[in-house]
Structures are given as C-alpha cells and as structure tokens.
Specification:
- The structure is a single chain.
- It contains six helices and no strands.
- It is mainly α.
- The model has no long low-confidence stretch (mean pLDDT about 85).
C-alpha cells in the first residue's frame, strides 16, 4: 500500500516551484541550436557549391577558413576541404553538447520527462544526474577543443609558436579537468555506496 503524498508547506512549495525559472534558459538554448543548424547548412551548401565550381561559394569557403599571415589558395584543395569539414564536425559536436545540456539539465534540475518507455531515449539519460552531466560535458568540451587544436596544427606554419603552445596548454588543462571531475565523481559514488551498505 502506497503512502499518501505529503503536501509541501507554502514556502518550500514556492521555493521548489522557482526551478521553472530555468525553463526560458533551456528554450533559449533550443533557439541557439536552430542557429547552429542553419550555420551548418550554409557551410555545407557552400562546400558543395565550391566543389561544383561556384566561384562565390569558393570565395566564401576561403574566407571561412582563412588564417592570418597564411597564403590564400586559388583553388579548392584537400587542406581547405579538411578545414571546412572540421568546422562542420565542430558544429555537430557543439550541437551534441547543447542537446546534453538541454535534455539532461531539464531532466536533472526542472522536471522528469518520463522517457523510460520511449524507444529513442538516449542511453545516458537513464542514469543522468549532476555528476554524470558534468563528466559528459567535460568530455564534449575536450572533443571540441581537439577539433580546434587540429585546425590550428593544420595551419601551424601561419601561427606564432606562442599561440600553438598556449592552445596546447589549454587543451591539456581541459583534459586534466575532465580527469579530476571523473575521479571526484568516482570517489563520491564509492563513498555513497559504502554509506548505503552500512
């Protein structure tokens, strides 16, 4: 027999209700996702147009991947295509990050979505909490940082060594931060499990 639900007192009920103030933030992130989708299709359209010989699309591609102090190519080459594709992958990874923040954040901090029986429920959402969300966000940021670092290394000759070193150091800091978050989460989980077993 289930126990009757206890009604919250007015002040705790009001404080708990304020979690819905975060809803406009998640709706704003959905709009940001729409902007990324539009940007992705513009870049993809220009890449296809440049491959088919459209001069305006080719010039836009060169402007998009231009690096200060680097010679501008006069035709579509493998490096240019690689840089554009890396830019597209970057957009996809940031979009994935947005999905994790929107769905995971809403599920964790606002309200349950009750997706347990939905066939498309993301695998990670079944055990999402603030710690899991932080770890997944850290991993996504490392992926995005890796793409940016790779784009820099492709044009390494055009960059000052200080820029290369600073970007590498920043990437290493992201890696160490992710390891620290994962390690802290592991300690917290094991401590919690031990306290439950006693």
């Amino acid at each position: 027999m289930t126990e009757p639900k206890q009604k919250l007192r007015p002040l705790p009920a009001f404080i708990f209700m304020t979690r819905w103030l975060q809803l406009p933030l998640y709706l704003g992130l959905i709009l940001a996702q729409c902007v990324y989708v539009f940007h992705f299709w513009v870049e993809l359209k220009d890449l296809i147009g440049a491959a088919l010989g459209n001069d305006a699309a080719l010039q836009h591609i060169f402007q998009a991947v231009a690096v200060p102090n680097a010679p501008v190519p006069d035709k579509l080459n493998e490096t240019t295509i690689m840089l554009v594709v890396l830019g597209l992958i970057d957009v996809v990874m940031i979009s994935n990050l947005l999905v994790m923040v929107i769905i995971g954040g809403y599920e964790t901090f606002i309200s349950r979505m009750n997706l347990d029986t939905h066939p498309d429920q993301p695998e990670w959402l079944s055990h999402v909490n603030a710690s899991v969300l932080k770890t997944k966000l850290a991993m996504a940021i490392i992926g995005i940082s890796s793409i940016h670092l790779l784009k820099t290394f492709i044009n390494a000759a055009a960059y000052d060594p200080k820029v290369l070193i600073s970007q590498t150091v920043i990437h290493i800091v992201f890696l160490l931060s992710a390891l620290a978050i994962a390690y802290t989460d592991r300690i917290t989980t094991s401590t919690h499990n031990e306290s439950k077993s006693h």
